[in-house]
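> Could you send the ABC transporter permease prediction when you get a chance?

Sure thing. Input:
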Amino acid sequence: MRTDRHTTALAWLLLLPALVLLSAFTYWPMVASLWRSLHLEAPGVPATFAGTEQLAALVDDPVFRQALRNNLWYAAVTVPLSVGLALGMALWVNGKFAGRGLMRLAFFTPTVLPMVAAANVWLFFYAPDIGLLNRALAAFGVAGPNWLGDTATALPAVMVVTVWKEAGFFMIFYLAALQSLSPEQLDAARLEAPSRWFRFRHVVWPLVAPTTLFVAVNALINAVKLVDHLFVLTRGGPSNASTLLLYHLYEAAFKFHDTGYAATLTLVLLALLAACSAGQFFLSRRIHYR
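Output:
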């Protein structure tokens, strides 16, 4: 019994650092956000219980509705594009050819760039008069648009930067999954089906499905928590055409100092992420884990 007590005490001591960090930086902020979302606060005035008033104000806010639509559209485009491009690049550099190492390095390089630095690079590409894209279009006699200053192109321009930044990172996971496949299974598939598409569809794709789930969940989380690129590229403009939920939360908390509204928006973000992740894991029951 003494040995069991010592083992239990040792286990809790080993868990204590993680529990302290999770409590301080995850659980307590969640509880504080819930409390702030239910109260109205002002400098020098005691907090008063407001119930669901903050949530009603959030639903009635046209900027929130615009940011929500933008984020849904942003996630619907960037997640499948990033995942598909990452898989395609991994299949390419998984083969044996001269310069394979340089190709892998080229695909992965955008990942190691800081987000602000990457956004500044693309800011030069998108510049209306001297930008690389408009210069290239001008060579063919086409007048390029103001990519970041037009409501029709601002959000797609940010999407391009995100896909360019994330695809190389997700490629690494797919490359690791492809290199862990059994050579015997691949050789048997080559004998049974000479078509590359058939082998990919019925052999490779099911075997890398766990990696696809992992990458898709991370891509979705990244789509919701994006804020760095918006600071440099658009600051949510023009006319909130590129405002996303986390950037709207930042403005509410640190620009307008509306902590109650920001706390309510935080809970909405957590609920959306939890719902999306639960849906993805529900669909993952058909995934085969080796």
